[in-house]
Structure formats: C-alpha cells, structure tokens
Amino acid sequence: MPMIDIQHISKWYGDFRVLTDCSTSIEKGDVVVVCGPSGSGKSTLIKTVNALEPFQKGNIIVNGVSLKDPKTNLAQFRSHVGMVFQHFELFPHMTVMENLTIAQVKVLGRNLADSQKKALQYLERVGMITHKDKFPGQLSGGQQQRIAIARGLCMDPVCMLFDEPTSALDPEMVGEVLDVMVQLANEGMTMMCVTHEMGFAKKVSNRLIFMDAGEILEDCSTKDFFENIDERHERARIFLDKIQAVH
Q1: For residue 117, how far is the Cα from the chain centroid?
Q2: Tens digits of pLDDT across the chain (247 residues)
Q3: Cα separation of 247 and 237, whole Å?
Q4: Which residue of 105, 172, 224, 237 shows the fewest CB atoms closer than 10 Å?
C-alpha cells in the first residue's frame, strides 16, 4: 500500500475548478517534488493531502487512513502528517520550546517532560538548540522555517508535506532550510514538496510531478524529467526553459 494514494481528486471553488482528476501515489521513502507555474493547483493539491482543503470528488488515503471515511478523525489524522508552510505559522507569543511542545501535549497527549525531550532532540537536529528560549520574532526567516520543520517532526509524522517552504525567504537563507530537507530525505522520510527549487529537485527527489491549470501533466522519475525533456509535455518544456533561464 502506498504511503499517500491520491485517487481522481477534483475540487471547485464555486464554479471554478481548481483541481481536475488528479491521481498519483507516493511510496514510503519517496521524495516527490510538485512543480508548475503559479496558479497551477500545486499548493491546493498538497493541502488536500492533510485535509486542510476539502475536495469534492475522489479520495485520498494516507498510511491506510481514508479522508473520505466519515469515521476518520481529521484532527488526529493531521497530527501524523507533518506540514510546513510558506509562512512559518509559528505562534509569535510563544518561545521556540513552547511552539514545539504545545501540540505534543494537547494533541498527542504527551506529558510535558517527554514533549520537551523530543523538542530538544529535533532542535539539535535542525541546528537551532541555542535558540530554544527565543521568540519567533527574534529569529531570521530561515531560522523560523527550520523551527517549523522541527515542530512537524516532533509529532512523529508518517510523512512530511512542504508547501513552498523557501519562497518567503531571502536567497541566502534558502540553503539552510534545503539542507535540513536534504538530511530528512537521506534519512528516508516520505516527503511531498511543492517548490521551484529545481536544484533541490534534481539532487534529492526521486519523482517529479508537473501541474498546470489544475491537472497533473507529468508524473515521472526526476531523471526522466530533466534528461528526456523532448518527451515531456509542451507546458513542462516551456516551464523548464523559463526556470533555467532565471538560474
């Protein structure tokens, strides 16, 4: 059974169709990059995977749990699917440690001592342990995003979803966040990542999904996407040309 199974997902905002019959499956340990032009439905698709965006047609099964099943407890489900957003979504009035322990205590029911131990373990891992008593506003964007990744990991997720995790960062901060993501990928974390960072895609992902206008136009190995460009969909070729021109 795949870790993430997306089956014929369609979604509308009123009369506007944002996703059209999207299907893909992601195996345990896969690192899948979702790319495409702005407005192509990438972020919407990734948000349907942890039920932040409802969908009207199809089904999504993550680690054997069906989102369509009315018995599925969505809050509990989300606690096992790590999500890292473009804008870090940290609580500004809480310290780094409090940001990392609150959901462990309230959602997972862990005691505070165990939650703090887990928080310290992951702060060490993302290189942020010296900042544990600071508030988010005292940290750079790159540091805040590393804290957000650590917070996700504290919940012992079965997979991690990243929605353009570097797009709000200054260029010199992008590397420090990507380094943490590379480390996670190397450790076998199942990851689905919406990003324009094609260097990261080439280096780390084993699959690449290309979307345009709410549809999945390409779903192939990363190697095929970059090396056999003549065989790709015309929209994907245009997108790649533009991205490579910028870099």
Answers
A1: 25
A2: 899 999 999 999 999 999 999 999 999 999 999 999 888 999 999 999 999 999 999 999 999 999 999 999 988 899 899 999 888 889 999 999 999 999 999 989 999 999 999 999 999 999 999 999 999 999 999 999 999 999 999 999 999 999 999 888 888 888 888 888 999 999 999 999 999 888 889 988 999 999 999 999 999 999 999 888 888 889 998 888 887 665 5
A3: 16
A4: 172
Lateral strand order in the sheet of 207-212:
81-84, 159-163, 191-194, 31-35, 207-212, 215-221
Give the chain's domains with CATH numbers.
4-246 (3.40.50.300)
SS3 for 199-212, per residue? HHHHHHCCEEEEEE
Structure tokens at 94: 């809480």
Q: Which of 49, 35, 45 is nearest to 5 (CA)?
A: 49
φ, ψ of residue 148 to 5 degrees: the values are: -60, -40
> What is the pTM assigned to this prediction?
0.92
